[in-house]
Amino acid sequence: MRKVLVFLFSFLIGVCLFLWIIEWVGWGEIKKNLFTFSGWEGMVILGITLTIWLMEIWVFKFIFKSQGYNLSARGLGEILFASLSITYLFPTTYLGGETFKVYAIRKKFSLPWKKNLAAAIVEKLLGGSVVLVFLIIGAISFILVSTLPLKNFGIITATFIGGLVLILAVFYFKSFKKESIFKWFFKFFGIRNWENHLLKDTEEEIFHFFDFRKKTMWYGLGLLFLKHFLIFIRCWVLIFFLKGEVNILIPLSITFFFQVAYLFPFPARIGSSEAAQAFGFSSLGLGAATGITFSFILRGAEILFSLLGFIFALKLGTRFLLGDVGDREKIQ
Prior knowledge:
- The chain is an all-alpha fold and 332 residues long.
- It is built from 13 helices and no strands.
- The chain has one domain (36-321).
């Protein structure tokens, strides 16, 4: 019940923010921009969005393969689409999408918990490393091309990015020295008696992947970089469709705001995306209405695939509840 109330509360806040932004900008200008967007342009955005989602399958398939498990792309894809939809539509659930993903992969493929948990953590660490690069580049690009004085923006952004850099720096330093991160973390917060075989085994799997001397880690970073580069390309293409802009600093700046919108736990990023893009686009001289149109179009593409993923989530959830893992996927 508590989770439902939190979800409803976050949704209500998002809707109120959404309506306020729409009223502030004016629906007429937004509608005008939407009507200039053609069907074939929409298909291009859908195609890029699908490719981004399929990259998630490729990344996880590679991580599991590095552990010695060649999982079925189809079976893994259903679970990952379901997980992405849960995370996107219900972000206030406590790690809802991640919990579903770990449990479903374990159930479907009968993998050891340590392998499964390690794969999920490895993907987040790789993704966080790549996102950090795009955040830094995007923030610098925005400061260079923005038409507004951005002293406060620079301070807040530098603090936020600095925190992420510190977290990842600690991980990579500990990983390089093969020192227990869990032990350091619990000791830092004064927690004793944390010893757990699952945590130790999971950490060993993570350290095994993050070996600077092996190609595995660098290949994984390359895959995540390709995924987020496609997100940048999608922003660039959509801005070109809406405004005809080709300056590379603009889509880099807008990609920054696209990532920032995910920090707010609003279902389907409603409200947070409009606010972020309205500020970003208006600061770049492209018009707040264009930013909201940009947000509408991307959300439309993401919701379409989220609904497909939600169907997979219902299908898999029902089979698991009935105790039927079906024709359990075999590890090739």
